[in-house]
Hints:
This protein folds into 2 domains: about 1-95, no CATH class; about 100-225. It is about 75% helix and about 0% strand. It is built from 11 helices and no strands. The protein has helices at about 10-20, 20-35, 45-55, 60-95, 100-130, 130-135, 140-150, 155-170, 175-180, 185-190, 190-220. Keywords: Membrane, Transmembrane, Transmembrane helix.
Amino acid sequence: MENHFIVSHLVGINRKTVGNTPRGRMKRVKLIGELTGHYALFTMLDPYVFMEAEILPEHLKKWLKVPGYIMRIALTGAVLLLLWYGFEWLRATASKPMTDPKMLCVAILITCFILALLACLARVCISFFKLDELESLLENSYFVDRNRRVMGNSLYGRYCRLSHLSTMLLLDVDFLSKCDPFAMDELARFPLSLRRLLTIPNRMLAYSIVGFGVFLLCGNLLGIIA
Protein backbone atom coordinates (compact mmCIF):
# COMPACT_ATOMS: atom_id res chain seq x y z
CA MET A 1 0.00 0.00 0.00
CA GLU A 2 2.69 2.47 1.02
CA ASN A 3 4.56 2.00 -2.25
CA HIS A 4 1.74 3.79 -4.08
CA PHE A 5 2.47 7.04 -2.21
CA ILE A 6 5.37 8.56 -4.10
CA VAL A 7 4.87 12.34 -4.29
CA SER A 8 3.49 13.01 -0.81
CA HIS A 9 5.58 12.79 2.36
CA LEU A 10 3.00 12.05 5.05
CA VAL A 11 2.97 8.27 4.60
CA GLY A 12 6.78 8.08 4.47
CA ILE A 13 7.17 10.20 7.60
CA ASN A 14 4.60 8.09 9.41
CA ARG A 15 6.41 4.89 8.40
CA LYS A 16 9.69 6.20 9.87
CA THR A 17 8.01 7.53 13.01
CA VAL A 18 5.90 4.57 14.16
CA GLY A 19 8.26 1.82 12.99
CA ASN A 20 7.63 -1.86 12.20
CA THR A 21 6.23 -3.08 15.51
CA PRO A 22 2.76 -4.67 15.33
CA ARG A 23 1.26 -1.53 16.85
CA GLY A 24 3.26 0.67 14.50
CA ARG A 25 2.14 -1.24 11.42
CA MET A 26 -1.47 -0.98 12.61
CA LYS A 27 -1.06 2.79 12.86
CA ARG A 28 0.38 2.89 9.35
CA VAL A 29 -2.60 0.99 7.97
CA LYS A 30 -4.94 3.23 9.98
CA LEU A 31 -3.44 6.35 8.39
CA ILE A 32 -3.87 4.99 4.87
CA GLY A 33 -7.43 3.99 5.75
CA GLU A 34 -8.15 7.55 6.86
CA LEU A 35 -6.78 8.89 3.60
CA THR A 36 -9.31 6.79 1.68
CA GLY A 37 -12.25 7.73 3.91
CA HIS A 38 -12.94 9.97 6.91
CA TYR A 39 -9.65 11.65 7.82
CA ALA A 40 -8.05 13.55 10.66
CA LEU A 41 -7.61 17.31 10.44
CA PHE A 42 -3.79 17.37 10.37
CA THR A 43 -3.65 15.19 7.26
CA MET A 44 -5.21 18.04 5.25
CA LEU A 45 -1.83 19.77 5.32
CA ASP A 46 -0.66 17.32 2.64
CA PRO A 47 -3.33 17.43 -0.12
CA TYR A 48 -1.19 15.39 -2.51
CA VAL A 49 -1.44 12.35 -0.26
CA PHE A 50 -5.23 12.36 -0.78
CA MET A 51 -4.76 12.58 -4.54
CA GLU A 52 -2.52 9.51 -4.45
CA ALA A 53 -4.96 7.71 -2.12
CA GLU A 54 -7.75 8.19 -4.66
CA ILE A 55 -5.86 6.21 -7.30
CA LEU A 56 -5.06 3.25 -5.06
CA PRO A 57 -6.07 -0.08 -6.62
CA GLU A 58 -9.64 -1.03 -5.78
CA HIS A 59 -8.69 -4.33 -4.13
CA LEU A 60 -6.51 -2.44 -1.63
CA LYS A 61 -9.32 0.04 -0.90
CA LYS A 62 -11.64 -2.87 -0.11
CA TRP A 63 -9.16 -4.22 2.43
CA LEU A 64 -8.83 -0.76 4.01
CA LYS A 65 -12.61 -0.44 4.40
CA VAL A 66 -12.91 -3.57 6.55
CA PRO A 67 -11.52 -2.02 9.80
CA GLY A 68 -13.78 1.00 9.29
CA TYR A 69 -16.86 -1.20 8.99
CA ILE A 70 -15.91 -3.12 12.13
CA MET A 71 -15.28 0.12 14.05
CA ARG A 72 -18.62 1.62 13.00
CA ILE A 73 -20.46 -1.56 14.04
CA ALA A 74 -18.66 -1.52 17.39
CA LEU A 75 -19.43 2.17 17.97
CA THR A 76 -23.07 1.68 17.02
CA GLY A 77 -23.34 -1.22 19.44
CA ALA A 78 -21.67 0.82 22.18
CA VAL A 79 -24.04 3.74 21.65
CA LEU A 80 -27.10 1.47 21.71
CA LEU A 81 -25.80 -0.20 24.87
CA LEU A 82 -25.27 3.17 26.55
CA LEU A 83 -28.78 4.28 25.56
CA TRP A 84 -30.27 1.10 26.97
CA TYR A 85 -28.28 1.51 30.19
CA GLY A 86 -29.34 5.16 30.44
CA PHE A 87 -33.02 4.34 30.01
CA GLU A 88 -32.79 1.54 32.57
CA TRP A 89 -31.06 3.88 35.02
CA LEU A 90 -33.67 6.58 34.40
CA ARG A 91 -36.53 4.11 34.90
CA ALA A 92 -35.03 2.82 38.13
CA THR A 93 -34.34 6.35 39.38
CA ALA A 94 -37.80 7.65 38.52
CA SER A 95 -39.48 4.72 40.27
CA LYS A 96 -37.94 5.75 43.62
CA PRO A 97 -38.73 8.80 45.75
CA MET A 98 -36.47 11.72 44.80
CA THR A 99 -35.42 14.83 46.64
CA ASP A 100 -35.78 18.21 44.93
CA PRO A 101 -32.02 18.50 44.06
CA LYS A 102 -32.04 15.00 42.60
CA MET A 103 -35.18 15.70 40.59
CA LEU A 104 -33.62 18.92 39.24
CA CYS A 105 -30.38 17.13 38.30
CA VAL A 106 -32.27 14.31 36.53
CA ALA A 107 -34.38 16.85 34.63
CA ILE A 108 -31.22 18.67 33.47
CA LEU A 109 -29.65 15.41 32.33
CA ILE A 110 -32.77 14.51 30.34
CA THR A 111 -32.81 17.99 28.78
CA CYS A 112 -29.16 17.69 27.74
CA PHE A 113 -29.80 14.29 26.21
CA ILE A 114 -32.84 15.51 24.26
CA LEU A 115 -30.93 18.57 22.98
CA ALA A 116 -28.06 16.35 21.81
CA LEU A 117 -30.52 14.04 20.04
CA LEU A 118 -32.25 16.99 18.36
CA ALA A 119 -28.89 18.40 17.24
CA CYS A 120 -27.96 15.05 15.66
CA LEU A 121 -31.33 14.83 13.91
CA ALA A 122 -30.93 18.40 12.66
CA ARG A 123 -27.50 17.55 11.21
CA VAL A 124 -28.92 14.47 9.50
CA CYS A 125 -31.74 16.53 7.95
CA ILE A 126 -29.30 19.21 6.80
CA SER A 127 -27.04 16.57 5.27
CA PHE A 128 -29.93 15.25 3.16
CA PHE A 129 -31.75 18.44 2.21
CA LYS A 130 -29.12 21.23 2.21
CA LEU A 131 -25.76 19.55 1.65
CA ASP A 132 -25.76 19.90 -2.14
CA GLU A 133 -26.54 23.60 -1.88
CA LEU A 134 -23.79 24.09 0.71
CA GLU A 135 -21.20 22.22 -1.34
CA SER A 136 -22.11 24.16 -4.48
CA LEU A 137 -20.81 27.30 -2.76
CA LEU A 138 -17.34 25.72 -2.52
CA GLU A 139 -16.82 24.55 -6.09
CA ASN A 140 -13.07 25.28 -6.05
CA SER A 141 -12.38 23.32 -2.88
CA TYR A 142 -10.45 20.12 -3.53
CA PHE A 143 -11.55 18.49 -0.28
CA VAL A 144 -15.25 19.19 -0.84
CA ASP A 145 -15.01 17.63 -4.30
CA ARG A 146 -12.93 14.75 -2.96
CA ASN A 147 -15.41 14.02 -0.16
CA ARG A 148 -18.27 13.94 -2.66
CA ARG A 149 -16.43 11.36 -4.76
CA VAL A 150 -15.02 9.22 -1.96
CA MET A 151 -17.67 9.26 0.75
CA GLY A 152 -20.71 8.96 -1.48
CA ASN A 153 -24.37 9.59 -0.68
CA SER A 154 -25.01 7.16 2.15
CA LEU A 155 -26.18 8.45 5.53
CA TYR A 156 -22.68 8.07 6.97
CA GLY A 157 -21.07 9.61 3.89
CA ARG A 158 -23.32 12.66 3.79
CA TYR A 159 -22.93 13.16 7.55
CA CYS A 160 -19.14 13.10 7.20
CA ARG A 161 -19.28 15.54 4.29
CA LEU A 162 -21.38 17.91 6.39
CA SER A 163 -18.98 17.57 9.32
CA HIS A 164 -16.07 18.52 7.06
CA LEU A 165 -17.92 21.61 5.85
CA SER A 166 -18.56 22.64 9.45
CA THR A 167 -14.88 22.16 10.26
CA MET A 168 -13.74 24.23 7.28
CA LEU A 169 -15.75 27.21 8.54
CA LEU A 170 -13.78 27.09 11.79
CA LEU A 171 -10.29 26.82 10.30
CA ASP A 172 -7.99 29.82 10.42
CA VAL A 173 -6.57 31.49 7.34
CA ASP A 174 -3.02 30.13 7.76
CA PHE A 175 -4.23 26.53 7.90
CA LEU A 176 -6.50 26.97 4.89
CA SER A 177 -3.73 28.61 2.87
CA LYS A 178 -1.67 25.44 3.26
CA CYS A 179 -4.32 22.74 2.80
CA ASP A 180 -7.04 24.21 0.54
CA PRO A 181 -6.04 27.68 -0.73
CA PHE A 182 -8.57 27.73 -3.60
CA ALA A 183 -11.44 27.58 -1.11
CA MET A 184 -10.41 30.65 0.89
CA ASP A 185 -12.27 33.24 -1.17
CA GLU A 186 -15.40 31.10 -1.31
CA LEU A 187 -15.35 30.56 2.44
CA ALA A 188 -15.00 34.30 2.98
CA ARG A 189 -18.14 34.85 0.87
CA PHE A 190 -20.09 32.02 2.55
CA PRO A 191 -23.60 33.33 3.41
CA LEU A 192 -24.12 34.10 7.07
CA SER A 193 -27.49 32.32 7.19
CA LEU A 194 -25.99 29.06 5.91
CA ARG A 195 -22.98 29.46 8.18
CA ARG A 196 -25.35 29.62 11.15
CA LEU A 197 -27.22 26.60 9.82
CA LEU A 198 -23.99 24.63 10.15
CA THR A 199 -22.62 26.05 13.38
CA ILE A 200 -25.74 26.17 15.59
CA PRO A 201 -26.42 22.37 15.59
CA ASN A 202 -22.69 21.77 16.20
CA ARG A 203 -22.69 24.03 19.23
CA MET A 204 -25.93 22.53 20.52
CA LEU A 205 -24.41 19.05 20.30
CA ALA A 206 -21.12 20.10 21.92
CA TYR A 207 -22.73 22.05 24.76
CA SER A 208 -25.25 19.27 25.42
CA ILE A 209 -22.57 16.60 25.70
CA VAL A 210 -20.38 18.77 27.91
CA GLY A 211 -23.35 19.77 30.07
CA PHE A 212 -24.47 16.16 30.44
CA GLY A 213 -21.00 15.09 31.52
CA VAL A 214 -20.55 17.99 33.95
CA PHE A 215 -23.92 17.55 35.68
CA LEU A 216 -23.55 13.77 35.83
CA LEU A 217 -20.08 14.07 37.37
CA CYS A 218 -21.10 16.79 39.82
CA GLY A 219 -24.24 14.88 40.79
CA ASN A 220 -22.20 11.78 41.58
CA LEU A 221 -19.48 13.65 43.43
CA LEU A 222 -22.01 15.53 45.57
CA GLY A 223 -24.06 12.41 46.20
CA ILE A 224 -27.20 13.85 44.59
CA ILE A 225 -27.82 11.05 42.10
CA ALA A 226 -25.65 8.35 43.61
